[in-house]
Amino acid sequence: MLKLIFKPIIWIFSKFLKLPLWGQMTILIAISVTTLVLMTASFGHKADYMAVARQEGPMFVGRGGDLSDTIHIVPGDSLRLLAELGEMIWAETPDGHFRGVIPAEVAGNPDGLPIRSQKQDHKISFRKYLRIIDDPDFSMEKLYAMTSINSVRTTADSIVVVPNYLLLDDMWNMFRVSFTFNPDGSYIASQYWPTSFRRFVSAITSYEPMMGGSGWRAWLTDHFSWLISRPEFPAVSSNWLLSGILLNMVPFLPLCILLLLLAWRRPLYWMPNWVANLLIVGCLFFAAYVWAKLMLLRGFSFLLAYPVVWIITIVLAGLFLGLYRGLRCPRCKRLEHHELISSEVIGKKYKDRKGEAVKNRTHTHTTTGYTVHTRNGVEERREKDWEEKHYNEEVETWVDQVRIDKIKELYRCRHCGHERVKIRREESWLSREDTGVENRRTSKFKRF
Ligand SMILES: [Zn+2]
């Protein structure tokens, strides 16, 4: 079974590694961009579908915290069905005054509705939330334009709206939020309540204040929200695969684009090699840093995210160095190895090297030391303290003559003639002279 899974993966990898660099980078970029398009298409999907209620039943509006409420639906009531949400249907009254979920049979089990993911969320930072409510122009209309609305409950003097927002504070804790508006849509108040606490993880990873942080994490949350949130309407069934690819590849996109441009040669022709190398290192650090943070924001635990990210990054960096170091021609900037033109011996050195091997070993005797424990002058017990084994050895000895050549190799770029000189040393064995057999006494000491 494992073989069935791993064989194709190894096959794909080996084919991938054999491709030229520009090919590899094009494939990686194409995969991330395709995923990006599919995922983006998943966001903001809206449905508009009218139906008449067939059965009596509840509509759950204002869910979460102390907002839980139900309204009663009776047969003949008109409903606008928005989407399927597991066993339930996401619906609203045609006047838009109430929105929530109803059991599917209340709407007569309709077909053809878009399927909304049950785990959808739209993550934003706590800082962004505070900015939203601090905006004097904030209104219900603005909120509707920013995200989708999970539930609406209307009374004579207020409208309570729960959007699809999930607030993340700087300690990775999550909150749901509701907004209360006047009937004319102007903002009155909002409240939030926690859905999860990850204090243990927070304690290790955070040094920032809990609420409304202004750090890098809030910035990452808001700018990469589309990456760490789960889309409402999965574009294809294996949505986890898409978002997994996206989450894990986007941090490496700058590196891939840089490498593709280097492989293309023309766009970065002007860039000296040291700058290119520095940029590559920079991109790798950026990838490792952002990747781990995104995984944490997505909900992976600290203990999983950091080791995975750093191990994979180090392996990638090693692979990369092994395959591509010194590849770029300093003159014509092509990514191709220089060709070996000639090699010439520029120096010779002769050296004698002594060698030996034990031919025969006989154990002659053992000496032992004891500690004697006594009580009232009477020996109680003896304890072995140390032991030394003595041997007679016959040792064969010899002297090898070796020659060390200093070789100068000349490499040349096939395209522009740029030359590189490499000096290396090569050792060759010439002859061996036996210098007889020596007798030696040796010993091995062991303490107990
Ligand atoms: Zn060249």
- Number of contiguous helices: 11
How many separate domains make up the residues? 4
Molecules bound to protein? zinc ion
Distance between the termini: 51 Å
Instruction: Tell me what portion of residues adopts beta-strand conformation.
Output: 35-45%
Helix content: 25-40%
- The best one-word shape is elongated
Total strands: the figure is 15
Trace the largest sheet across and list its strands.
1-4-5-6-2-3
Please write the string of helix (H) and strand (E) elements: HHEEEEEEEHHEEEEEHHHHHHHEEE
Q: Main beta sheet, described?
A: 6 strands, antiparallel
| Average pLDDT for all residues | 84
- State the low-pLDDT regions, or none: 202-212
Radius of gyration using CA atoms only: 37 Å
Keywords:
elongated, 11 helices, alpha+beta, 33% helix, 6-stranded antiparallel β-sheet, 4 domains, 448 residues, SH3 type barrels, 6-stranded mixed β-sheet, binds zinc ion
Describe the structure.
The two termini are 51 Å apart. This protein is an alpha+beta fold. Helices cover 33% and strands 38% of the residues. β13 and β14 form a beta hairpin. The strands form three sheets. Strands 1-4-5-6-2-3 form a six-stranded antiparallel β-sheet, with no helix packed on it. Strands 7, 8, 9, 10, 11 and 12 form a six-stranded mixed β-sheet that branches. It has a three-stranded antiparallel β-sheet with strand order 13-14-15, with no helix packed on it. The protein has four domains: 130 residues, no CATH class; 59 residues, SH3 type barrels, CATH 2.30.30; 107 residues, no CATH class; 109 residues, no CATH class. The site of zinc ion has 8 residues, from loops.
